[in-house]
């Protein structure tokens, strides 16, 4: 089926699209390793790929000690993620990150700090990270974040629904969240490290998309197991299958534990191999990361100057 740029409206629960699917972990691990090992991006292209990664980062702070000041500093970094002298040396125009991602009460501070930049504010919501608050409160949290100006909402699913195979309950909850988001785009965090099997990851991905998710996202960053390549591959297969069945393109956001330029290149290679060029842009690909940018900037500096600066030159994120 040809694919459209229109927003995914979702559909009723269609168990037949996922119930018979089984994902073999060994095969997924082998395929993920084949895509990302031995495929080093050539030096000249590497800087371009890293700049592309910067544009896809959801620059994140989700800490208990977040303050308006920290959020403002993060927003300043989102506006100018790479030092202007490096940008100039590479002969490229200014770039920004894909979004800034914060807790709901930090949304107004981020919105103010990003005014005029065009950078959207993403808010986690729905009892992030566990999702174990009653549904009315979780929906109220979405409403609050949207009212405060969040244009993207990162929801968390109830892992119990996946572990017990309660697909209708999962569909109903995610559907309600999507409706509450209104115009704001919804990223559904599956918390894959708590779903037990890759087969569950595939099924949960499919149900989240059937319920109207605009993006599917791996992790909150708070689970013991963060984003991995085999998990990401499994989600991309579900996303591809959903696209073939419905014609709608869904975005993908790996998040949690992604810290290095090497991680960024590995995930970009995975996206390119599995889905192709359209998924290498921020409307369909985000990297959720609180501390990846510093290493990317370091590698870009090395590209420009041939040497690494000491770590304290890149103090933030
Ligand atoms: O959504 C983004 C994640 O919370 C970021 O996780 P991280 O702090 O491990 O980069």
Automatic annotation (TrEMBL):
Key words, A-Z: Cytoplasm, Lyase, Schiff base
GO CC annotation, single: cytoplasm
Pathway note: Carbohydrate degradation; 2-deoxy-D-ribose 1-phosphate degradation; D-glyceraldehyde 3-phosphate and acetaldehyde from 2-deoxy-alpha-D-ribose 1-phosphate: step 2/2
GO biological process: carbohydrate catabolic process; deoxyribonucleotide catabolic process
Record localization: Cytoplasmic granule
Known catalytic reactions: 2-deoxy-D-ribose 5-phosphate = D-glyceraldehyde 3-phosphate + acetaldehyde
Name of the protein in its database record: Deoxyribose-phosphate aldolase
Organism listed in the record: Aquamicrobium defluvii
Source organism phylogeny: Bacteria, Pseudomonadati, Pseudomonadota, Alphaproteobacteria, Hyphomicrobiales
């Amino acid at each position: 089926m040809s694919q459209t740029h229109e927003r995914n409206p979702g559909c009723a629960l269609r168990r037949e699209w996922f119930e018979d699917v089984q994902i073999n972990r060994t095969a997924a691990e082998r395929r993920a390793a084949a895509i990302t090992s031995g495929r080093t991006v050539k030096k000249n292209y590497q800087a371009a790929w890293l700049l592309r990664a910067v544009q896809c980062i959801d620059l994140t702070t989700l800490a208990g000690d977040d303050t308006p000041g920290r959020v403002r500093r993060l927003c300043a970094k989102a506006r100018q993620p790479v030092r202007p002298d490096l940008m100039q040396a590479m002969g490229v125009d200014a770039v920004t990150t894909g979004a800034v991602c914060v807790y709901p009460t930090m949304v107004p501070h981020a919105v103010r700090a990003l005014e005029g930049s065009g950078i959207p504010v993403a808010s986690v919501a729905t009892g992030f990270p566990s999702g174990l608050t009653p549904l009315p409160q979780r929906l109220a949290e979405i409403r609050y974040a949207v009212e405060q100006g969040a244009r993207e909402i990162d929801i968390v699913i109830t892992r119990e629904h996946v572990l017990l195979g309660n697909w209708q309950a999962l569909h109903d909850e995610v559907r309600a969240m999507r409706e509450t988001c209104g115009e704001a785009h919804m990223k559904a965090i599956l918390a894959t490290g708590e779903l037990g099997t890759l087969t569950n990851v595939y099924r949960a991905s499919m149900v989240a998309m059937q319920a109207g998710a605009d993006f599917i996202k791996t992790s909150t960053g708070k689970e013991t197991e963060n984003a991995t390549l085999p998990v990401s591959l499994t989600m991309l297969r579900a996303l591809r299958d959903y696209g073939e069945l419905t014609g709608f393109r869904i975005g993908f956001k790996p998040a949690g534990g992604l810290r290095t330029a090497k991680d960024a290149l590995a995930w970009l290679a995975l996206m390119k191999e599995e889905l192709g060029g359209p998924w290498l842009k921020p409307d369909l690909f985000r990297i959720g990361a609180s501390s990846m940018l510093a290493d990317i900037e370091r590698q870009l500096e090395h590209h420009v100057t041939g040497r690494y600066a000491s770590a304290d030159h890149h103090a933030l994120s």
